[in-house]
Amino acid sequence: MKNMVIFSGAGMSAESGIKTFRDHDGLWENHNIEDVATPEAWAKNPARVQAFYNERRKNILEAKPNPAHEIITQLEHYYDVQVITQNIDDLHERAGSSQVLHLHGNIRLSKSSGPDAQYSTQFYAVSGTDLDLDKDRCPLGYPLRPHVVWFGEAVPAYEDAIKIIRSADIFIVIGSSLSVYPVAGLIHDIAASCQAYYIDPHADHSRVPKQYQCLSMTATEGMNKLAEIFIPA
């Protein structure tokens, strides 16, 4: 069975109604990213950061997997499919994908906000939409924060992602602007023999090497196209 690796970005979740992480104006849901997505923001105003992610969590819980997510799940019948996602939602899991690696965290989980929080391996499920700064605390007494990799923090899953990508026979990038580093650099780690595809409305070879076939389509359009190739009739 061939190894198929899916690398998904914000455009994947956008079709489920989840707004993209970073728009062209540098804002996220009308907030400056520096005010809600950095360790400094948490240190300065944890209540604002917590409220922001509580609202994001509510949005994600109301969203549903879209047809592109569902096609990826179907591909597991024919390939060893590993999903690597930049998204902090759990739509891949809810669609039925069995192997999902979250590069930037999973908002349905929380972790301690204590020292070295960015390297934590202890996570706690979030029940419902909200984390409470006063009530929700780790065993050492620190408030729980979202399990999200903020700007300026390490990406602990990065090395695991490299190993997965290097083993890919088929590599499909979906809905990523490929502008957030170091993660965007992962597209260069595929083997020379790998079949590679880039699905995005703005896909072209200014973003990816010539090894990639560019499909200037939405996530669902692109995955429908690839389903014709990779799912037996």
Task: Report what the structure shows.
With 233 residues, this protein is an alpha/beta fold. The protein has one domain: Rossmann fold (3-Layer(aba) Sandwich). It has 8 helices and 11 strands. Strands 5-4-1-9-10-11 form a 6-stranded parallel β-sheet, with helices on both faces. Strands 7-6-8 form a 3-stranded antiparallel β-sheet, covered by helices on one side. Helix 5 packs parallel to helix 8. The protein starts with a strand and ends with a helix.
Return the CATH architecture.
3-Layer(aba) Sandwich
- Looking at the structure, the CATH topology is Rossmann fold
Annotation, overall tally of beta strands: 11
How is the main sheet built? 6 strands, parallel
- Element pattern in H and E: EHEEHHHHEHEEEEHEEEH
Low-confidence stretches: none
Mean pLDDT: 93
Instruction: Sum up the overall morphology in one term.
Output: elongated
**In what range is the share of β-strand residues?**
15-25%
Estimated helix fraction:
25-40%
Radius of gyration: 18 Å
What's a concise summary of this model?
With 233 residues, the protein is of the alpha/beta class. 28% of the residues lie in helices and 21% in strands.
